[in-house]
Each structure stands twice: as C-alpha cells, then as structure tokens.
Amino acid sequence: MNVLITVAPTGPIATKADNPYLPTTPAEIADAVEAGYRAGAAIAHIHLRDEHQRPTADLAIGRTVMDAVAERCPILIQMSTGVGLNVPFEDRARLIELAPPMATLNPCSMSFGSGQFLNPPEGVARLAAEMRDSGIKPELEIYDTGHLDACLRLRDAGLLVEPLQFSIVLGVQGGMAATADNLLTMVRRLPDGAVWQVIAIGRANRELTAIGLALGGNARAGLEDTLYLGKGELAQGSTPLVERAVRLARELGHQISTVDLARQTLGLPTPAEI
Ligand code: KMH
Ligand code: ZN
C-alpha cells in the first residue's frame, strides 16, 4: 500500500526554549517543510507563529509561509485552523481565505492540557461548508469517540465530501489517552473508505505511529507531536522523525506516496486541473 506522510514541524505549543530546532519564522518553517518533503512527506501541516513565536492567524504571515513553501517544493500544504489555544475561532477560520489545498477541521470543543480548545458547533459547520465550497480538503482531527460521531453528522448534513480524511489524535490531556486499545476502537469505527492517520502526542509517538502504519493508516511526523526521538534524545528538527516514519513504513512493505498520488488518494485536483 501507499502511505501518505505528513510533516508537522511547528505546532501550537512548543517554543525554541523546548527544542531549539523548532521552526517559527516563515523561512525556518519553509526550510523544515522542504527537508520533510525531501525525506518523503507529501503533506505539510502548518502552524503560523508571530515574531514572538506566538501562534497567530495573521493572513500576511500565512501568505508569506505558503509562498516560501511553494518556492521550495510542491508539497501539499495543510493549513492548521487549530492555530493555538488563545486565538479566537473566528480568526482561525479566516485562514482558509488563503486557499490552501488542505486545512484542518477540529469538530468539537474540549479541554486541552491546562487550556481549552474552542470549536463551537455553528462555527464548525460553517467552516466545513466554506471548505467544501472552496474545494479545500479538511483533515478531521478527532480526539475522542464523540468527535468521530460529530464528523459523521457533518457528512450526513452534506458538509463533507468523501473520502473523509481523519487524524486520530492520541495523547492530548482532555482527549483519548495514547493507547493501542483506544486507537483500535477508533479505527474500527471509521466509515468505509476513510483515509486516516495517527497523531500520537508525546512519549507514545513512535509506538503508536508504528501501530497505525501496521493497521493500514498513514503517518504524521514532526516536532508538533513529539520533541524527542527517544527518551532524553531531543530531535534535531522534524526530518529525523519523518525519516523514522518512512523507515517504519518501508519495513512494513509499504511504499511512500508522492504528492501526485496523495492528491489522487484525497480526491484533490492536480495542478493542471486547477
Ligand atoms: N497539535 C494538535 C493535537 C490543528 O492543527 O488543527 C492540535 C492541533 C489542531 O494543532
Ligand atoms: Zn496542528
């Protein structure tokens, strides 16, 4: 099978104080994405930061990052509309005005570590409709069983176009714990034809990424999900994590998906069709 690898170089929470290799400026983010692409990633999950490293939904910064990435490589850009816990939902939702080919859609509100992640139902439905109408592929981030049900309701309301693409997020405090049991429960409940990957936060990153690949899922890798390669071993950027996901996939007999194949898998038009 072909495995889609997503590089997630920055995320909403960590700073350079946590890992000095964390990219936060547009040029650093674009460089990290390009390195991830060269290591095998077909998709780049992008969080924006301001000049103080704070998560931002600033459209000008978003445009700069998207242009910088496009100059370097043809990877599929997946803009995070999750952005960061302190950025209001309405500002985050506006990022789809940048017309990335993909963007995240977080279906529910939840506790998130010591903070809260607010995704009000009406706003989520509107964002889903806007993404559908603009041909932006949502990556549905589900942190609990009820989040999957919420996505299926959006699908039933005609707001999501198949194939649905899920990220099963494990290990956020406030969502499902990072266990193989929870992952299996979620995989069993996915609708037929769903495209999916594991997002394993923290210590269980390697094991759950491997289990996800063995179960037929795709993989995400990068400093957004873990700052470490192993116990006490800081990852020197996202590339070693992408390389590890590629190695795991290949050991399982999978091929690594190109960007063109990723477009086909997700039902996205090729650049010539746009
Ligand atoms: N780091 C993820 C678990 C998003 O990008 O839309 C949460 C997140 C959401 O970053
Ligand atoms: Zn994210």
TrEMBL record:
Cofactor: Zn(2+)
Pfam families: BKACE
Database matches in Gene3D superfamilies: Aldolase class I
Name the UniProt record assigns to this protein: 3-keto-5-aminohexanoate cleavage protein
Signal peptide: none
Species: Mycolicibacterium goodii
Keywords, comma-separated and alphabetical: Metal-binding, Transferase, Zinc
Superkingdom of this protein's organism: Bacteria
GO molecular function, one term: 3-keto-5-aminohexanoate cleavage activity
